[in-house]
Amino acid sequence: MQSDKEGGDDGCPEECIALSDFTGSGSDQLAFTSKDKLLVHAKPSSDWWWAELHGVIGYVPASYLRPVGAAKERDEETCLEDPWQDEEYFASYGTLRLHLEMLSDKSRTEAYRQVIFTNSASLRNKVVMDLGCGTGIISLFCAQLSQPSVVYAVEASSIAEYTRQLVKQNDCEEVVTVLQGRAEETELPVQVDVLVSEWMGNCLLFEFMVESVLLARDRWLRKGGVMWPSSAALALVPCQAESYYAEKIAFWEQPYGLDFTPLQPLAQKEFFTKPKFSHLIDPSDCLSAPCDIITMDMYTLQVEDLEEMKGQFHFCVERSGVFHGFTAWFTAHFESLETEGATVELNTGPNSEPTHWKQTLFMLDRPVRVYEGDSISGSIVLHRNPIWRRHMTVTLQWNINSSKEETDNCQANIKTFTLFTLTLMNNSSIMLFFNHCGSIFFMQCGFVTYMHRQKVLTLPLESLDFFCVCFFCICVHRLEQRVSPCGGERLTKCLINGGDQLKISLTHPL
């Protein structure tokens, strides 16, 4: 498979315009400002392109650029169709995989249950809105524990059909009303006293469901009403990650007695330019005490505040070790409605019971040994993608200061990480869609199946990996082009095995 893709269709550089500022984190990355025009020479991956600015060539993040001219028009048309990627996003919540994961998260679910139980007296006869209710677990807690007058359970995905059944099955239909639709389009007959939602994502903000919560707050929460969570904070700590570093980088030093170190820069770019989600850090790997770097008051936070959120940090190293990166997590707080009632906290950090969010690891390009008494200070910026509204970048800037000669005193280190939505499908399925043709591939129960019109072909997977599956799909597609008048159209979307979204464009007939 050819990895490099030329900038333009004719092999010529493609002119692109920068959507926002970017500061490169290494000598091989270009720095640019908003509205700069760059020439893209190659597109080695969907995330990083090889571009030129003012005669200097380097890597640039693809999400920061938009093609100009005719290519720009095509790109804008594509982006504006669904900049929120709602079709794919809500489709992922239409299956049970994510709901099983969330309901199995006892820390998360019990936190909401505790909030409702400890505030049951104050919730009696109140109007509650459960935004993004999923299977309706929070709404059912409200109905059973607090006797509200009504709970409006709002859910945009197709799981809402089953939520209605669950409400009826648990004899709560007189209290809980399930409304299927996006929060921005939902109509309620009255204002609500309580707006509750489980909107938090990785790094607190990722996927930006919080915007829907804020819009619902401004539209439906009565004056003096209650938000749950009431506040939230993003925490950060410098850390060790020896096993992950060994797995992704040190591995190449001498596999099978051979020197593969020339692959280490490639491995660093492939594995460390994005954060590692679902990371479980051992508390002993924290090099200092964590600190809250971004705090959010859900009563005063505005939608426009989400475009860029900044924070500062200063850590005093409490134990000597190797500084591999930063680990982030969040806490959410639920204020009490009862007199002298205690605030309930949902903590996703390493000193609490693990949640389905776990933690998020941001790896440095080069680990640094630090010693007790050293300081690590800097800043963090969470920048929302101006086009793809569920995506964002995280830029970390840090300095290490020490009086010890053994410590590398680093000045003005900076690194940007991209966080983008992974299209989530059923764990056991792979689906590939062809424009106009309506061809579908899916993998289930150890087989990959191709369906188009009246034709169905099935192949045992056995030990086949994804690339073998793709090869099978392409072979069948080539056969289809010979017998179908719609041959030669582009393969536009591939939804892969429970998570990763891959976009493939076949510009020439196979």
Automatic annotation (TrEMBL):
Alphabetized PROSITE patterns for the sequence: SAM_MT_PRMT, SH3
Coiled coil: none
InterPro entries for this protein: Arg_MeTrfase, PRMT_dom, SH3_domain, TRM5-TYW2-like_MTfase
GO biological process assignments: methylation
Domain of life of the source: Eukaryota
PANTHER family: PROTEIN ARGININE N-METHYLTRANSFERASE (PTHR11006), PROTEIN ARGININE N-METHYLTRANSFERASE 2 (PTHR11006:SF92)
Protein name as it appears in the record: Protein arginine N-methyltransferase 2
Species annotation: Solea senegalensis (Senegalese sole)
